[in-house]
Task: structure prediction
Amino acid sequence: MPHHDPATLPEHVRRIVDEIETDSGDDAPPTLSDGHSNGRIESAVRQIIVEIGEDPKREGLLDTPARMHRMYRELTAGYHVDVERLINRAIFEVDYSEMVVVKDIEFHSLCEHHLLPFFGRAHVAYIPKGHVIGLSKIPRIVEMYARRLQVQERMTTQIAELLMERLQPDGVGVVLEATHLCAAMRGVRKPGTVMTTAAVLGLFRRNDKTRAEFFAHIGRRPPES
Result:
């Protein structure tokens, strides 16, 4: 999905995009003022408030539509991230061919089915083939995909495929473990349930030993072949 022109983004969203795209100390473009909302989101939120039987003019709800507008723009800032700026030439030639693992990357995302949060930890590994990526870039890639309307399965695959495309490694493995509030708060209400998804490419898919090593690093049992 193409990223948006930074000039069209509100300042608070631009700041989040900058945080994902750039390392501390990198040159970041100037932030921009929020400008004026067209009011469509605020109007829709007021209508939802009415439909559930509340009064949008009540003191506690008066500013809720504007707050929700700002909140959802922040939580979906990942749509606007430019992958080229995020990576920012941080792929380096290194004579190293053993597994690289970055684990316990915290993330928060929004389930696209109910717009309720799901959150947890990501574990990412790859086997370099002449190139490595800067350590901070992997959590930023996770954050970019988390700040979108998501399903966990797709997010897992997106992270793996981007690393495979950009690094051309011998293999990539990604595991996400998350709690979904749509399962904890609604329907059958099963709090404490954790969903685990995995994407394995290259050697991680073809070689049982490689896959088992990855799962051992993150302290998990590999799925049955």
User: Anything to note?
Assistant: The beta strands are 91-93, 100-111, 117-127, 131-133, 149-150, 171-180, 195-202. The chain is about 40% helix and 20% strand. Confidence is low (pLDDT under 50) at residues 25-35.
